[in-house]
Amino acid sequence: MSTQVLEFHPPAVACAPDAGRWPVAQVAALFALPFNDLLFQAQQAHRAHFDANEVELATLLSVKTGGCPEDCGYCPQAARYDTGVTAQKILPLDTVLEHARQAKAHGATRFCMGAAWREPKERDLDHIEAMVRGVKAMGLETCATLGMLGQGQAERLKGAGLDYYNHNLDTAPEFYNNVITTRDYQDRLDTLGRVRQAGIKVCCGGIVGMGESRLQRAGLIAQLANMDPYPESVPVNHLVQVEGTPLHGAEALDPLEFVRTIAVARITMPKARVRLSAGRRQMSEAVQALCFLAGANSIFYGDKLLTTGNPEVEADAALLDKLGMHSRAGQVDARCELD
Ligand code: SAM
Ligand code: DTB
Ligand code: SF4
User: Is the Cβ atom of 288 under 6 angstroms away from ligand 3?
Assistant: First the structure.
């Protein structure tokens, strides 16, 4: 039973989670609340645990791009889809550290390194360990997303100073096979168990806008919220549709439904950092502002995600300024170039 979930006091309209867990039906009931009531609850949960005007800036770098053997239907880096992404070798250490240095200079507090692997090989981990050590030594929080981890690999990353491991459940168990067939839900849960066991903080979320139903979005949130403990960090990605991937052309999600997903994540995981992740480039400023109101308090900062675009740092600095928001590091500095 998670004590974190028990601390939440939901109003009468969305019944209290029994036994500290969130049945899918109760998560779905949150989704069905009138929008204003949902956002009000999300604000209450947010303000109970965070400075409501503070946002974490995390910079993402693809340290090994493309050529991935997996078949994730959303992903431009899968070798089997013709998306125009060229497979590259792992980046040299000094290139990664230079990106991290610039990210820090711009005000980022967290640096996330991503690799297009099904799982890292042992020799890959030597490189990643050096990257983690170097980034950590700059005073940045470190995060990596490298695919599934085998026995002993999470411990190696922890030893190098890794703060967070990102591994997403992506969607509800019932919808999962519509999106990925080359590894199953249990594989993901096993990796998350290894990360937790090694004492690394868990960064785990999913993607919405892939054609899933609202009930399936509730199913994803319930899976996350019922982890014991729930993840410290929850990325909510809006599908970035990339030509050549099977999910290109999926029916567009109503932006207000995306905002609802953020709010439900905030209410069910009140102490987590809820991350407004991929898809911001396709979102209006007004929708992003609603996401902050719904409890999002982390964004990717830098003009690129892994292979697709993200808002320019100048635009983000201007948006945060307009909203009177500040980063964890204080002032946001968009003056120097990231690349
Ligand atoms: N290869 C590793 C893995 O899949 O575990 C790590 C990198 S993978 C690109 C990290 C996450 O990015 C995926 O789990 C997925 O949630 C997200 N992602 C990938 N492509 C996306 C897209 N087109 N739109 C939104 N999110 C995406
Ligand atoms: C996460 O949940 N979203 C980020 C990060 N973790 C690694 C990745 C988004 C990728 C979007 C598609 C791309 O740029 O390739
Ligand atoms: Fe490979 Fe990760 Fe993309 Fe799936 S999401 S195809 S595992 S890089």
Answer: no
